[in-house]
Amino acid sequence: MKTSALSATPPPTRPILLWDGDCRFCGRSARWLQRRTGNAVDFAPYQQAMPDYPEIPEADFAKAVQLVDVDGAIYPAAQAVFRALATQPKYAWLLRFYQGSQIFATISEWVYRRVANNRSLISKVI
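Structure (tokenized):
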């Protein structure tokens, strides 16, 4: 499992998932995830939140969602999604599986990268 190399100061009071507000696919995905996490996670387009998180390079925002946790740790991509979902007990198993299986983590990140690299095309289709 990857650990966060970045840390936000000050940390948020609730986890916040930062996504690309210019991407239709990203917006739909963020709304889907928000329906599953309820009020446990805040969501914001990175374009609006970027000034609050100068620790995260803009290039990282452009590549993947970023989850800033309440301890200040910052997690990207698939791990961010699993951490957001894990705020709900019925989805916590996904993060445990991600953390406990290097194969699952590697495949999850690979799939995330493939989708993220093609999101402009996907946005045109959906």
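The chain has seven helices and four strands. The chain has a mean pLDDT of 94.
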